[in-house]
Specification:
Elements: H1 15-33, H2 45-59, H3 64-75, H4 78-99, H5 102-112, H6 119-134, H7 137-155, H8 159-176, H9 181-190, H10 194-219, H11 239-249, H12 254-272, H13 277-290, H14 292-310, H15 313-322, H16 328-346, H17 349-367, H18 371-388, H19 393-400, H20 411-414, H21 419-433, H22 448-455, H23 457-471
């Protein structure tokens, strides 16, 4: 057990986190009350985080140089830098693949294979595949909602139900994808492999997806069957998405997977004439810059977390949480609640995981929760709440995309139809008390090599000695 967990720490050290939440959430609530569209995205999260970083600097003792060294230690952490590089590569892949027509081809291929009477379940499956392959729920919603709403409107299907199916599938993909920023943040913050987290997460997500498909097959039948029309697609343009999905699932290094995906999409674009070499280069750059918010946010948050930890904030939280958490199960409930509240406050599942990750890791050490379980819980519950909060980008975008068809849709209309998110929450909670997702883990739940690098060799030796003495 980490020796610092026994110290009370200082609750005041958490003020920078509180300031970030108050500024970001407060500005959103004020603008929402004024009827401003996308209210929670008007005050940039990075600006709010920058102000919080300045407060953390002001609260830390020592010279400016000493404070900056602490900040730099967190911002330059190997896991933070790994996350930043993966964000850039994932952005470039999404941008190039969409520019050469891969996204539209994938959507049209899926829609052409599904009878209209099964469209609600079909849209969920297509969205789930797209979200898993691309790693972006927003990209999935943007690609599929316009087509799905048109068909629903013509075919007599419930538009909110169709939107709920699309958003649910997108959140399935966001949760499970090897290249989504939520998966990257969850696994790197807990020091586990993506494929190990995927295996644990899959046994929670799959039952929820199957139940959702059954529900959508029952409640999603249209009043009249409408012809889909001519959906053109080129199978070769679907290849980059399939390649990324397959290579990631077989366990190839994520840097290699994304680099191969970028160049595969580029080569197919050049060969089909949909991209020039300059278009390819521009789209790689566009993909990089498209990740700037999550890039800067992660960088600032990594440094600020180090300052907060240095000032005793994390130790104080763990000390307080220990009075609530009595064992492994209650610790898992605590981790799920922690990331859920963080997401409700920030309206961004990646931010919620980045904020909660270090604290969740300490809780995992304290109560011996498998790090793969912790990463899975962080991702599952952040995606559940990101899908159902009416001020989140996913529901706001889905509702906004219906206006092209003259339909006035409010995000709150979609919430009762988010079958997948609601079922996933129930299955996620059940998985804590009924260990049906634990059998896929190795016997040794801890990646000790990672922890040695994180905690220091001397401290780790002391931990190992304590473990051995407790077993004698």
């Amino acid at each position: 057990m980490d020796h610092h967990l026994n110290k009370k720490g200082s609750g005041l050290a958490l003020v920078p986190f509180l300031i970030f939440v108050v500024i970001y959430l407060g500005a959103g609530l004020v603008l929402q009350a004024q009827g401003v569209e996308m209210a929670f995205y008007q005050f940039p999260s990075v600006t709010a985080m920058f102000i919080a970083v300045l407060v953390a600097f002001a609260m830390t003792k020592g010279s400016i140089n000493e404070r900056f060294k602490i900040f730099a230690k967190g911002a330059a952490n190997e896991d933070v830098l790994t996350m930043l590089m993966i964000y850039l590569l994932a952005g470039a892949f999404s941008s190039v693949a969409a520019a050469m027509g891969g996204r539209d081809a994938t959507v049209n291929l899926g829609l052409s294979l599904i009878p209209v009477q099964f469209l609600a379940a079909g849209v969920f499956i297509i969205s789930a595949f797209m979200g898993t392959a691309t790693g972006t729920s927003m990209g999935t919603i943007g690609a599929i909602v316009p087509i799905a709403v048109g068909v629903a409107d013509k075919g007599g299907l419930s538009v909110p139900l169709m939107l709920g199916a699309c958003v649910g599938g997108a959140m399935f993909g966001d949760n499970l994808s090897m290249i989504s920023d939520t998966t990257i943040a969850a696994t790197r913050s807990q020091g586990c492999e993506m494929r190990d987290k995927f295996r644990v997460n899959f046994f929670i997500a799959l039952p929820a997806a199957i139940i959702t498909i059954i529900v959508l097959l029952i409640v999603g039948r249209p009043e009249t069957v409408t012809a889909m029309g001519d959906l053109q697609y080129s199978i070769i343009k679907v290849v980059p998405y399939l390649l990324v999905l397959i290579l990631a699932l077989v366990g190839m290094n994520v840097f290699l997977v994304l680099t191969i995906g970028i160049f595969a999409a580029g080569i197919i674009g050049l060969a089909t004439g949909s991209l020039s070499i300059f278009d390819f280069a521009q789209n790689v750059w566009t993909g990089f810059t498209g990740m700037n918010e999550v890039f800067f946010l992660t960088l600032f948050c990594g440094g600020m977390s180090q300052l907060v930890t240095h000032n005793g904030g994390i130790a104080w939280l763990i000390y307080k949480l220990r009075s609530i958490m009595k064992g492994n199960k209650s610790a898992q409930v605590g981790i799920a609640a922690l990331v859920s509240l963080s997401d409700c406050a920030t309206a961004n599942n990646t931010v919620a995981i980045v904020l909660s990750g270090p604290m969740a890791k300490d809780i995992s050490h304290e109560f011996k929760v498998d790090p793969r379980r912790t990463a899975s819980l962080l991702d599952v519950f952040s995606c559940v709440f990101q899908g159902i909060i009416p001020y989140g980008a996913q529901l706001l975008s889905a509702a906004a995309l219906t206006t092209a068809y003259g339909i006035a849709m409010n995000p709150t209309d979609i919430i009762p139809n988010l079958w997948y998110c609601w079922v996933l929450a129930i299955v996620g909670i059940l998985s804590i008390f009924i260990p049906f997702a634990d059998g896929v883990c190795r016997k040794d739940p801890w990646n000790w090599e990672y922890d040695v690098a994180e905690s220091g060799v001397a401290e780790k030796k002391a931990m190992l000695e304590m473990e051995e003495s407790s077993q004698i």
